[in-house]
């Protein structure tokens, strides 16, 4: 046997790898992706709390300790970047490196360590890249307001689909506000009010520009919004960020008296020191821009840098791509997925005219849950609804907000067998109401397509009167289809047990 024989393996070729490095004022981030057949897969993420902005003195000079922290972090990044073509790497610095008088000292050594050029981008370019990162990973619904609270700057952008329309970058961030308003480590009503007042003062000249844009959704990118969402999820609240939650968290911070004693269920240790200052800025944004609720986006600056290198990704329907990738990955029957989706949408159109479902994007969650309801089948049949829910709770669904992902997972878990209303209790009342309508639609859609054939189902009508739903078929059709008749009879019983009425004729 020739021991020198080379064996080729189907591993990723170097030109398929891309990397983006974001040297932020609070954290340094690196994300590495592999592109396969037009699909982007994250294969590596590194985040280190450097708190570069904390090293700025009154003359805007970075102290030696902060410089050393930054360089040490970049040494770990540099080794991983060696495996990626230089043309597929983007490295940017943001607010602190814009502000620092001795930024050139940091940049010169950083470029030596990384063996790559470091570009310090201005505030508008940072805002534009943040918007693109959000837009690529979170499907837009009309005009969207995007907010990113960084360590030394806050970016506010309004845009539509892939196009940012109006944007600003302001010199306020969770690290710089901590040094200014919470430097002694004390947390008080006075500290919070001073921080909120200053943030509102900085927002005042631009607030009307954003309020006048009639945006349909607000998306928060990483940082403080992400930390608050993690707190809500840990505390069993599957909801958007709302102003009453922010004021409640503010009071919890004040009750802890000092940053050293700050303990909130769901707040990570790495976020603790800068949480009050970031929260103060977010409260000011909510109040000054009349924000009712905020969802968490799937991306931010580094994702914008990555997708900016992939021009062919701009016209892709992110949600559809996500669903089709899941169908292939989990061996879901694609014809049946689209069949159930079609029936579900047909039923929903007959329902939605009779019900007020608020601003919840019902069709997005219904389509996804209909197409992915068999995700768990490749594990086993008996409990495949539970297996599917488990998989979806750990799967990033690009194009969907965190709340939508939670809704899709819960719908899949509830599409068959016993209805458990307590699964919906963690959602906001408006969202819960919509999901309870969607789960009835989804269950009927799966049941009516049980024979897995097209053109089998006769025309039907669905009439709703509150909790009473009536499904009507042509005369004699149910009698001639005993399987579906029996399944509908069982579904009547399941819905009756939770106080709903289903009639079928």
UniProtKB/TrEMBL annotation:
InterPro entries to which the protein is assigned, alphabetical: ATPase_NBD (IPR043129), GppA/Ppx_hydrolase (IPR050273), Guo-5TP_3DP_PyrP (IPR023709), Ppx_GppA_C (IPR048950), Ppx_GppA_N (IPR003695), PyroPPase_GppA_Ppx (IPR030673)
Keywords recorded for this protein, A-Z: Hydrolase
A biological-process GO annotation: guanosine tetraphosphate biosynthetic process
Superkingdom as given in the UniProt entry: Bacteria
Domain Ppx/GppA phosphatase C-terminal, chain residue ranges per copy: 319-492
E.C. numbers: 3.6.1.40
Catalytic activity: guanosine 3'-diphosphate 5'-triphosphate + H2O = guanosine 3',5'-bis(diphosphate) + phosphate + H(+)
SUPFAM superfamilies, A to Z: Actin-like ATPase domain, HD-domain/PDEase-like
This protein's pathway: Purine metabolism; ppGpp biosynthesis; ppGpp from GTP: step 2/2
Positions of the Ppx/GppA phosphatase N-terminal domain: 31-312
Molecular function terms from GO: guanosine-5'-triphosphate,3'-diphosphate diphosphatase activity
Protein family according to the UniProt entry: Belongs to the GppA/Ppx family. GppA subfamily.
UniProt function note: Catalyzes the conversion of pppGpp to ppGpp. Guanosine pentaphosphate (pppGpp) is a cytoplasmic signaling molecule which together with ppGpp controls the 'stringent response', an adaptive process that allows bacteria to respond to amino acid starvation, resulting in the coordinated regulation of numerous cellular activities.
HAMAP family: GppA
Protein name: Guanosine-5'-triphosphate,3'-diphosphate pyrophosphatase
Organism expressing this protein natively: Paraglaciecola psychrophila 170
